[in-house]
Specification:
The chain is an all-alpha fold and 75 residues long. The protein is built from three helices and no strands. The protein is flat, with a radius of gyration of 14 Å. It starts with a helix and ends with a helix. Keywords: Membrane, Transmembrane, Transmembrane helix.
């Protein structure tokens, strides 16, 4: 087991939930834009981190697409 990877996952979840709670306090449409940007950034980091694992890269692309939709279309 890679303890560092598990620790980074837990820290990432805490940061993500904190940012999501902060973004939810903003007034519309800025809350949707910020949440969409966070999801798109998560998708980019997922895609880059995957390095050859295709299904994780596909998940990253899906997160990028949903983040862009959330930021610009789904308010």
């Amino acid at each position: 087991m890679n303890l560092y990877r598990q620790l980074m996952g837990a820290v990432g979840l805490m940061i993500g939930f904190g940012l999501y709670a902060f973004a939810d306090r903003l007034s519309p449409p800025w809350n949707s834009v910020l949440i969409g940007a966070l999801l798109a950034a998560l998708g980019v980091t997922t895609f880059v981190y995957a390095r050859g694992e295709r299904w994780i890269q596909v998940l990253g692309v899906i997160l990028i697409a949903y983040g862009a939709l959330r930021a610009f279309v789904l308010h």
